[in-house]
Each structure stands twice: as C-alpha cells, then as structure tokens.
Amino acid sequence: MPQATTSGTADPRDFLDIDALLDGEELLLRDTVRRFVADRILPEVADWFEEGVFPRELAKEMGSLGLLGMHLDGYGCAGTNAVSYGLACTELEFGDSGARSFVSVQGSLAMFPIHAYGSEEQKEEWLPRMAAGEVIGCFGLTEPDAGSDPSSMRTHARREGGDWVLNGTKMWITNGGIADLSVVWAKSDDGVLGFLVPRDTPGFSTRDIHQKLSLRASVTSSLLLDDVRLPDAAVLPGVRGLRGPLSCLNEARFGIIFGVIGAARACYEAALDYAKERVMFERPIASFQLIQRQLVDMMVSVNRGMLLAVHLGRKKDASTLDPVHVSLGKFDNVRNALEVARTARSVLGANGITLEYPVIRHMNNLESVYTYEGTNEIHTLILGQAITGFGAFS
To answer: Cα separation of 374 and 372, whole Å?
Structure first.
C-alpha cells in the first residue's frame, strides 16, 4: 500500500494561510465560535436535521456569546467589525446553515432595521433583549406571489384613526414560528413601511412549513395578518420605500458570503479525511488521480471563496463596499460552495447520502441558500446591469 508523503508545508485545511490575514481579536472570536459549534451544534445537528427542529434554547446561548446583532453598536450589542461577524457566520455554517441563518436573521434582518431605522424607544425596548436571545425576531418581506419582486407585495397597511391595520401573508420566513417579534414590511399610502409586530398581537398568527428537504434544522413559517391593529409607535420611522427592506437583505447577504464557505469547508474536510482512510483496490482512494483532482478543486474553491469574503469584509469595514460587491460575493461563493458539496458527496460514495457525514445535509441546505435572499439569477442580472449599464429585469 502506498504511503502518504508530504510536499511543502501548506496546511490542507488553510492552504493559503488565510489566518495570517486576520488579527488577534478576529482569530480569538473565530476560535470561540468554532469551539461553540464543535461542543454544542455538531454533536446534535444531524438529529435536529432529521427531526426538523431548531432548539429555541440556542438563542440565549448564542446571545451569551455576543453573536446576536454582533456587528451593531450599543444596546447590548457587541459592536464587532464586519470581518469578525463574517468569521462567526463561517463557523456557524460549518455546523449547519440553520445555525447561521438564525444568527443572520436575528442580527441583520430583525435587529438591524430597528437599529438603523427605529425610534430611540423602539431600540431601547427591543434591542437589548434581542441581543441576549431573550426575544427572537424574524423578517417578513417575501410573499407567496412576491419573492424576487418585492414591489409586487400585497400586504397592505391602512390608516384607521391613530392606528394602522395590516392585512396580508408572508411566506418562507426563517424563525417565523418561534419569533416573539416580526419586522413586517407592508404597502401603504405613504409607501412601503416597516412595522414591529409582537407575537401576541390580535389577528397575527404563524404557520410552520413542514416536509422540507433543506434547512431542516431551521424553523420556516408563514406569517398571517388578519386585521392586525398596531399603534403608530409600531412603525419604523426612519425609512420609507423598498430601500428599507433591501438594505436589510444586503446586510444578511454579507453574512452568507462568509457562511457558505463554512459549509464548503466542512464538506471538503469530510471528503479529505474520508479519502485518506477509505481503502479500495488495496490503497487509499486519496492516492487515485481522479480523487485528487476532486479534492484539489474543492480546496481551491474553499480558499478562493474565503479570500473573496475577507476582502469584501475589509471593504465593508472601510465603508467602501458597494451593494453590487455583495451580489458578486453571494453569487459566486454560494454556487461554488454548492459544487464543493456535490463533489464531496461523490467522493464519499454511498456514505455521502447518510447523516453520519455532514455532506448531504450541507448540500441540501445550500440548495436553499442558492435561492434565498436574492436568487442566483437575480444576482446575475444585478451584476450584468453593474457592468453594462442596462437593466434586464423586465
């Protein structure tokens, strides 16, 4: 049987020494989240995935680590830089896309609009408890007939005396069924407005979506609004129009750029370990040329994607990140991560379809990430418009 030899000093798990691009505080935070994922998520996530559950108690555990709204300042939020937030997303998605989605929705889609557009009273009422994981939030924008085109939403808010009355349905809402507070976007005579809707508001209800084959360790729901009456104080006063929800989505997409590299890295490392241990024709399959080609392709994709993520993170910290840069990162890193997962599944053979290994779970999850928060096609058109000057959306 051939023996493995070492050529060069590159680490197969950090081939380009990307850790050298990170400062001590960023590495410390990354390693803290990595330990949390190893201790708390990886031992149980296959069961959560199979059972289709997300343990609510994880919210307070994540809050105690400062992961919720970590890139926001004040109100109990950690105030980390963008790269640190991205690294946390990478480690969380190494565990499962559901864990990263929870943190992303809580911090970037529920807390961010309150932080950016809320009144001081709204910020003080909600943000400290959300940062601690005591209050779970969700983001209501997508509807059954309005996904990639949010301007066609049907959810409507009308004035009635000093109150607002909301009617409509939101769909594919992460955290919806466990959320204590929903940030709901609705059309009104004043334009698109954001509303803070507590779970116990009369007329408001949720319905969980079951029989999913992707993002199973995550709660996905519909939000139902039937004459939901809210005071004027429930409106986010700092924004009008689609700029509000679209800015939130841009924040969340940034986390995805980093996050999917965690899923890709998990698949690559599982395939690398398996190939070195799996013996076929009296030799490890890692010694075969075709398997080495697959492993190299995966390694290159993971390293290239992480370099792109860190670069965009540095631009965000320098306030030079354009939304089209985020589209590029989401577009390219997600499609490459999905290809890594599919390749890893092939390397593992039949073992690749079991939950004993993380690969099929990540592969299925990434099918959702490929679609949500801007489909691959929509980001293609955003980039096409950015380089040609011509819009091709209609």
So the answer is: 5
Asked if residue 394 belongs to a domain, the reply is: no
Q: What is the CATH number for 44? A: 1.10.540.10
Does the residue 202 lie in any domain? yes
pLDDT at 4 over 70: no
Instruction: Tell me the pLDDT tens digit for each residue of 9-49.
Output: 899 999 999 999 999 999 999 999 999 999 999 999 999 99
Mean pLDDT, the chain, whole residue set: 95
Whether 263 and 383 map to the same domain: the answer is yes
**What is the sign, positive or negative, of the torsion defined by CA atoms of 91, 298, 101, 351?**
negative
User: Of 358, 179, 329, 212, whose CA–CA distance to 271 is shortest?
Assistant: 358
Name the catalytic one among 26, 125, 251, 373. 373
Q: How far apart are CA 276 and CA 348, in angstroms?
A: 11
| Residue 373 designated active-site | yes
Q: Are residues 230 and 364 in the same domain?
A: no
Tell me how far apart the alpha carbons of residues 144 and 159 are, in angstroms, rounded to a whole number: 24
SS3 172: strand
pLDDT band at 313; cut points 50, 70, 90: very high
Under DSSP, the state recorded for 161 is T
Q: Is the dihedral of CA 175, 176, 180, 184 positive or negative?
A: positive
The enclosing domain of 348 has a CATH number of 1.20.140.10
In total, how many domains does the chain have? 3
Question: Can you give the pTM of this predicted structure?
Answer: 0.94
Same domain membership, residue 317 and residue 189: no
Separation between Cα atoms, residue 85 and residue 71, nearest integer Å: 6
Q: What is the CATH number of the domain that holds 156?
A: 2.40.110.10
In the sheet with 137-140, reading across from the earlier edge strand, the strands are 137-140, 181-186, 193-198
pLDDT 10s digits, 96-117: 999 999 999 999 999 999 999 9
Query: Is residue 172 one of the residues assigned to a domain?
Result: yes
Determine the average pLDDT of the residues in 87-94. Answer: 98
Contact between residue 116 and residue 235 where contact means Cβ atoms under 8 Å apart? no
